[in-house]
Amino acid sequence: MEFASNITIAAIFQQVLVGLSRTTILFIVASGLSLVLGVLRIPNVAHGSLYMIGAFLAYTIATLFGGGTAGFWLALIIAPLGVALISFIAERGLFCHLYEREHLMLLLFTFSFTLVFGDLVKLVWGSDYRSLSAPVFMQGSFSIFDLPFPRYNLFLLVIGPLVALGLWFLTNKTKIGKIARAAAVDREMVGAVGINVSRVFAAVFVIGCFLAGLGGALVAPTQNITQGMDHAIIIEAFLIVIIGGLGNMWGALLGALIFGLTDSMGILLWPQFAIVFPYIAVIIVLLFRPKGLLKSTW
Fold first, then answer.
1. Is residue 245 helix, strand or coil?
2. Beta-carbon neighbour count of residue 204 at 10 Å?
3. CA dihedral 20, 22, 23, 29 (to 10 degrees)
4. DSSP 8-state symbol, 131
5. Structural domains of the chain, with CATH
6. 130: which of 188, 192, 208, 286 lies 20 to 30 Å off by Cα?
7. At 265, which helix (H) or strand (E)?
8. Dihedral (CA of 31, 35, 41, 45) sign
9. What is the pTM of this model?
10. How far apart are the C-alpha atoms of 262 and 268, rounded to whole Å?
């Protein structure tokens, strides 16, 4: 077990790009979790299950429309909307009655949803692996310094900043975003001025879960779609939210960058133990910044 010996500037640059494309998925999922955590104070363990459902829905929708470019784009649009609809039903039917309960109860409640969603996925799609192909023009790779880089990863590098820009616009330039930020600081005061806080919470919860579904739809062409894919992502998402600052969306972006880049560089430097590198980074951050890199909303 030795360090990789073929480390070059080109290889480092390639792995940085790979890490940034992985950061896109991590940020999209973690930002949704951070949004719900920051405004509603709900540690939504079922967030990873919604990510998994988004991936399975993307596969089903793309298959129904015959695959190809049209099927992919429709899957990318409809799958997150399907996850948002599921989350809206869950929020209006159950979550809205539990906002004042203790965090431990909310944690256990959302954990029970992971079991329900897991059985639902098994009932609808079975236990077999599924796979979704990217559109033809996104398949294959191109050369960077004579090293291959997947075209689909380049697409992810474009999507990531667009989602971040969209979230910035939503939280800073729209009425619902400003109300949500105010509710994150003082929900009682928001309610006292006549704003229906319950509707604001519903909208925030749905947007956060939409992002989980979007992350699942985007990751579908890059890996096998299977039961259990929710477990790893929810652990990573929570760690990203913690090191970024609880409820801080831009902290989620910073945490995702740290997690994604350390993971990709670990693969280059020490492939046998690559999985350890992001967790070492988390430990280092928490040693020096126990409350996270940016200001927590909790």
1. coil
2. 25
3. 160
4. -
5. 14-127+136-288 (1.10.3470)
6. 208
7. helix 249-269
8. negative
9. 0.92
10. 10
